[in-house]
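Hi there. Long-time user, first ticket. I'm pasting a complex I've been working with (about 221 residues overall). I'd like to know whether the download I got is complete or cut off, because the file seemed smaller than I expected. Thanks.
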Amino acid sequence: MISQVPARLAILISGHGTNLQAFIDACARGELAAQIGIVISNNPEAAGLQRAESAGLATRAIDHRNFATREEFDQALVNELHAFSIDLVVLAGFMRILTPVLVEPFVGRLFNIHPSLLPKYPGMHTHQRALDAGDAEAGATVHFVTQELDGGPPVLQCRVPILNDDTAESLAARVSLKEHTLYPIAVRWYLQGRLQLTGEGATLDGHAIPANGIQYTADLR
Ligand code: GRF
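Hi, the file is complete. Here it is re-exported in full:
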């Protein structure tokens, strides 16, 4: 449960930070009872750090290459998350595999967005894999993070058609636009106390969420 209002989010990025921007905008519009307490990147060159600075947010670059082990890197992240009194951690294109050092203290309040229709295509190169398989649809899934890579319980999923002339890049762009609507909705549900990770999986308003997440529709509230 969230202990402070507004809740304090950490957003972890490695790259462009377009999902980060969606959270900056959603907070500015008053759609989330939250403030972004810190933006952390493992990549000091991440363009998303500039977005955060332009929005006046606190930022940290913690370069994973300066740590001997994944666990030591994760401990450095945890130290920052505690230092900034973070309630909820939002992974937004954060390209590192997490260890229990980070997952355990934040389990149930740690989210990721993955660019596939989970449980299909965990891992990398999701759009190319969907094209290679001849799929008719692709999409993105917000899920709770557990120790299993891209394997925590799905919460919310959006779908886009795959077009005949799609490349991995054109498909990624179509999915990315939808992600920016999707991710803040799932986080809003959490902040409203509606979304929980239980021993059996994810629940919304006390009801079990289907194995591939709630399917996004424009009238979702
Ligand atoms: C998104 O496609 C997300 O699904 C994946 O990484 C990408 C991040 O993009 N996890 P951005 O940095 O938010 O623009």
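A couple of notes from our side: Residues 158 and 182 are 7 Å apart (CA to CA). The domain at 114-221 is CATH 3.40.50.170 (Rossmann fold).
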